[in-house]
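Thread amino acids onto this structure.
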């Protein structure tokens, strides 16, 4: 298990998003609203497809790759199956997630395994999209410490057509269940404030060539996944700048006894009907959850 910096402050969540404008800011101050244990609510479940790399019909499984448990997910793992050696390009992002037990007053869920994955600056997912099919970057697993924290070093996600800016994640009760790809306690996604994404994309157009255009067409409150509400699903920006890098946090309350229906985002580990195969090489589906 990696050692994490102990955080003594209570967690805050950003309550909403503003218009899509470039902010004249050099940095972001801590903002958000207080999240008390009395407000402890399980984060909504969302689809994990179609690029989870652990439950599709191709048998693609990141969780079985050597080195899958790692804090820095910007580079690709090295394996015979996925020989890519690329490092994802983008604004550095330190992403901190606090995993808590909603059945016990939001007490830390020590030992929970958290698998995260997201697209790169151009909107592609490693292990799937043709340009990065041999890469394994922007995917990783961490184990929650005694205070429930996991931390990933990554890049700010890109924004592709039809979706708001987001990161996918699964929460397993422990590391063994993650390796075995069984009993997922929570399948969900979290987002970022639109105004922060706008500044990141506006100031780093080479790294995010279509980011600002796609963001303006897909604001958070119109997103197909988050349009029904996202109060518990927006990360707080704690510090940093849109060029040098950002630090973000989110609190994730789960019921560790729950078992998600994996068929909502893909078939069970052994396979199952009703889940379409990935698009043919070079093709991009009109909508990617």
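Threaded sequence (289 positions):
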């Amino acid at each position: 298990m990696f050692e994490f910096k102990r955080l003594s402050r209570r967690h805050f969540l950003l309550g909403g998003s503003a218009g899509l404008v470039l902010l004249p800011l050099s940095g972001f101050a801590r903002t958000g609203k207080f999240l008390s244990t009395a407000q402890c609510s399980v984060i909504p479940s969302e689809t994990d497809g179609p690029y989870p790399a652990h439950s599709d019909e191709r048998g693609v499984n990141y969780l079985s790759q050597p080195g899958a448990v790692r804090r820095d997910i910007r580079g690709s793992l090295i394996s015979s199956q996925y020989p890519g050696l690329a490092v994802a390009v983008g604004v550095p992002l330190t992403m901190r997630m606090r995993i808590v037990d909603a059945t016990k007053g939001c007490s830390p869920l020590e030992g929970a395994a958290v698998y995260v994955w997201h697209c790169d600056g151009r909107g592609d997912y490693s292990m799937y999209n043709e340009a990065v099919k041999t890469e394994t970057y922007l995917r990783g697993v961490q184990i929650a410490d005694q205070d429930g924290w996991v931390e990933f070093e990554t890049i700010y996600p890109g924004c592709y057509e039809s979706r708001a800016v987001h990161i996918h994640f699964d929460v397993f009760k422990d590391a063994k269940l993650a390796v075995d790809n069984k009993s997922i306690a929570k399948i969900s996604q979290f987002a970022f404030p639109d105004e922060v994404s706008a500044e990141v994309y506006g100031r780093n157009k080479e790294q995010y060539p279509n980011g600002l255009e796609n963001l303006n067409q897909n604001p958070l409150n119109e997103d197909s996944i988050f349009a029904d509400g996202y109060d518990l699903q927006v990360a707080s920006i704690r510090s940093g700048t849109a060029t040098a890098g950002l630090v973000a946090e989110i609190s994730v309350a789960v019921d560790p006894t729950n078992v998600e229906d994996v068929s909502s985002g893909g078939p069970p580990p052994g396979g199952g009907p009703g889940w379409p195969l990935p698009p043919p090489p070079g093709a991009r589906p009109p909508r990617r959850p």
